[in-house]
Amino acid sequence: MTPAIRQAIHEHVLLASLELRLREALRYVLLTAALWAEMTLCLVWHWTGHYGGSAAHRYFIRWFLAWFLTQKIPLTFASLPYRGGRYTITSMYAFLNYKYYLGARSVHGTGTTQRGERCSPD
What we know:
Blueprint: H1 3-52, H2 54-58, H3 60-72, E1 79-82, E2 85-88, H4 89-102
Antiparallel strand pairs: 1-2
Helix pairs in contact: 3-4
């Protein structure tokens, strides 16, 4: 073997080793991020249910989507379904947060809260 061929093989082995290490590091970072996101989501799910009751769990996905699409990705023109109608994400996010922060819970089947407020995002 000539020194040039030996050098080429050595460089190829080093690049392959570096690529393997980078892939492994990326997998570790992605796995860590996925586990963190899952634990955070479960924690928020638990405490939302603790403070907001069963209605909070029922509307958790809509609330989370509304938060994500208004605060992280500004897609304010999109809409979400709610009780047979579709409402803009910004109004749905404000409505779900309003009910959550005030502690108002819907009286089943009446369309109003325990305080007599109307249950509608508009």
